[in-house]
Amino acid sequence: MMDWTDRHCRFLHRQLTRRALLYTEMVVADAVIHGERERLLGFDGTEHPVALQLGGSDPQKLAEAARIGEAFGYDEINLNVGCPSDRVQSGTFGACLMKAPVLVADCVTAMKASVGIPVTVKCRIGVDEQDPEPALDALADGVFAAGADALWVHARKAWLEGLSPRENRDIPPLDYNRVYRLKAKNPNKFIGINGGIQSLEEALDHIDHVDGAMLGRAAYHTPGILAGVDAAFYGDKPKTFDFAALIDAMADYAARHIERGGRLGHVTRHMVGLFHGLPGARRYRQILSTDATRPGAGPDVLKAAFAAVDFSGTDAEAA
């Protein structure tokens, strides 16, 4: 989710669910240590609980980046061992680390020693020609022995040779059962599942077998589904969701961002799919895709787009 789940995206998602754990896009440890930290790590206090996802393969650098993240107020530090992008391959981290479980364990050990908040890992079931049975077991055994508080498993292999990052999201077949078997072998460890989950109903089915479910692109492209998370997963009383209040909150947030020198489009680009499937959603998308990107656009554009959506016949509130 690099370049997607930035602070503006997470602020939107937090308006939809109070309880779900949100993750940052992956930030490289070297950038955290040497880069512009406020730009890379800054977030709105309403985003809690929120985890900082780090990329890297040097245990000491990751430990330092984890300390910095904890000082910024993050609730969890997550080490990415699953991203197959060209950027991470050139830096020998992300999914490449599936081939180096001992090094991953060393990274977790160093990070755990440096912070007092949970340290977790996100991985694949394997890469390239690896057999997912021993490969995933080796990674899981190592990180749990090192003290990892949770392991999130994307239930696909990553092919570092021959497939693009985009193809790696769709072409390798999903193998949810492999993750279920890992959980069965580790009944006292937190193991969550990721990959191809398109709805809350699918996520609930997975919870019968593992401890958590992670939504990525489904939550991004159709963020409205997050409005049902708190009732479905955390036992909150179901209620009519007030989308008008959400738009007001996002308009206020966008106004503050613009006052600091930002642009409306930085915020609204994450909101295009918010009303997917509702009458008027096409017009809403058109307004955000055109008017919101123009120089000088203000929060009134967002409210004009919202006015195009027809909520009649739904259980959501428009006003």
UniProtKB/TrEMBL annotation:
Signal peptide bounds: none
Presence of the UniProt keyword tRNA-binding in the record: yes
Reaction equations catalysed: 5,6-dihydrouridine(20) in tRNA + NADP(+) = uridine(20) in tRNA + NADPH + H(+); 5,6-dihydrouridine(20a) in tRNA + NAD(+) = uridine(20a) in tRNA + NADH + H(+); 5,6-dihydrouridine(20a) in tRNA + NADP(+) = uridine(20a) in tRNA + NADPH + H(+); 5,6-dihydrouridine(20) in tRNA + NAD(+) = uridine(20) in tRNA + NADH + H(+)
Cofactors required: FMN
Gene Ontology terms, MF aspect: flavin adenine dinucleotide binding; FMN binding; tRNA binding; tRNA-dihydrouridine20 synthase activity; tRNA-dihydrouridine20a synthase activity
SUPFAM superfamilies reported for this sequence: FMN-linked oxidoreductases
Pfam families reported for this sequence: Dus
Function in brief: Catalyzes the synthesis of 5,6-dihydrouridine (D), a modified base found in the D-loop of most tRNAs, via the reduction of the C5-C6 double bond in target uridines. Specifically modifies U20 and U20a in tRNAs.
Similarity section: Belongs to the dus family.
Stated name of the protein: tRNA-dihydrouridine(20/20a) synthase
Organism field: Mesorhizobium delmotii
UniProt gene name: yjbN
